[in-house]
Design a protein that fits this description.
Elements: E1 19-20, E2 27-28, H1 31-34, H2 40-57, H3 62-98, H4 108-114, H5 117-129, H6 193-211, H7 222-232, H8 234-237, H9 245-258, H10 266-281, H11 290-310, H12 319-322
Antiparallel strand pairs: 1-2
Helix pairs in contact: 6-7, 6-9, 6-10, 7-11, 10-11
Length: 324
């Protein structure tokens, strides 16, 4: 006969003991008492030992091992990302605290004094390398938007669908009603120079919008952007006609070299050319006028905004642009 039956439960002290804990040898009456807070260390250890023993006896397949390893890697990456985000937020909060009450628009010396030695070194390195791209949010030019092409023949079991750009990701200029067709000005056929003049203007416009990272309409930048735009195109500035695509490009490049701190590199200029092609092609790459009208509408808005800022008529008249 089990001797525990002759003892009362040492946990509740009410019922007769029926069992004995294998770890501490204490008599108890039920599972409820075994899991009681006063017996927590033994009960948790018991379950832990059983779980470990079960896991050791389990033999996972190679596929299961891969899944487990991937889950562990994902978990580690999430922890690292969370820690990095937390450190980043702490740095921002710390910097904001140091700059509280400092005149950020005018007191550059005080701002410099509030930076740590590490922050000063990082800033000097960025200035020396002229690598400001990490400090400026990436701008997505609206003319890079493309509609998905609808195939003429679609296989019945075809699963792959061409990915289409989301229009909501782009800020398209509103087409101005001031832009009139060429026939509105004359009944004659368009002169051959018209397409090359248009190319010259587009090169200047695209360069400026890309150079200012799409912020050319900003209130504080629009006057400078308009001046740069007009200065880069002899078609606008001097009403000069272009007679070839090469001439349209060479003239813009020559004007660009004369403006201090505006020219970046020939590679950047070639990117401008590629982007002009995108504007000419349009959203469906069929050389429709949609993007072309948007570009000239944006030019009109730029001139208008800059004139409003200057409150004078020193800039070129909008009519000279709308005729294109």
């Amino acid at each position: 006969m089990d001797q525990t039956k002759s003892f009362s439960c040492k946990i509740c002290h009410e019922q007769k003991a029926v069992y004995t804990c294998p770890k501490c040898q204490i008599p108890y009456c039920s599972v409820k008492c075994y899991q009681h807070n006063s017996h927590e260390k033994c009960s948790e250890k018991f379950y832990e030992d059983n779980v470990v023993e079960d896991l050791q006896q389990m033999k996972a397949s190679d596929e299961e091992k891969k899944v487990i390893m991937q889950l562990l890697k994902n978990f580690e990456q999430e922890c690292a990302d969370d820690e990095e985000a937390m450190l980043h937020n702490e740095k921002i909060a710390d910097l904001a605290s140091r700059l509280a009450g400092v005149d950020l628009d005018g007191d550059s010396q005080e701002i410099w004094m509030q930076l740590s030695e590490k922050e000063r070194k990082e800033f000097k390195k960025i200035v020396q390398e002229q690598n400001f791209s990490n400090l400026i949010p990436e701008w997505l030019p609206w003319w890079t938007y493309k509609k998905a092409k609808k195939p003429l023949v679609v296989e019945v079991d075809a699963e792959e669908v061409e990915e289409q750009d989301d229009p909501s990701d782009f800020k398209f200029p509103k087409i101005s009603t001031k832009i009139q067709p060429f026939s509105h000005f004359t009944k004659s056929d368009p002169p051959p120079c018209l397409k090359y003049n248009t190319l010259n203007i587009l090169l200047a416009y695209t360069f400026v919008t890309m150079r200012y990272n799409g912020e050319h309409q900003d209130k504080e930048l629009c006057v400078q952007c308009a001046e740069d735009f007009v200065s880069l195109s002899d078609v606008i500035l001097h009403a000069t006609n272009m007679h070839s695509a090469g001439e349209a490009f060479r003239q813009m490049y020559a004007s660009l070299k004369k403006i201090d701190d505006l020219f970046i590199s020939l590679d950047h200029l070639l990117q401008v050319v590629d982007n002009v092609v995108l504007i000419l092609q349009g959203p469906e790459e069929n050389f429709c006028n949609d993007f072309l009208l948007m570009a000239f509408s944006d030019m009109l808005k730029l001139i208008s905004n800059s004139r409003n800022e200057l409150k004078s008529g020193k800039l070129l008249s909008q009519n000279n642009i709308s005729s294109y």
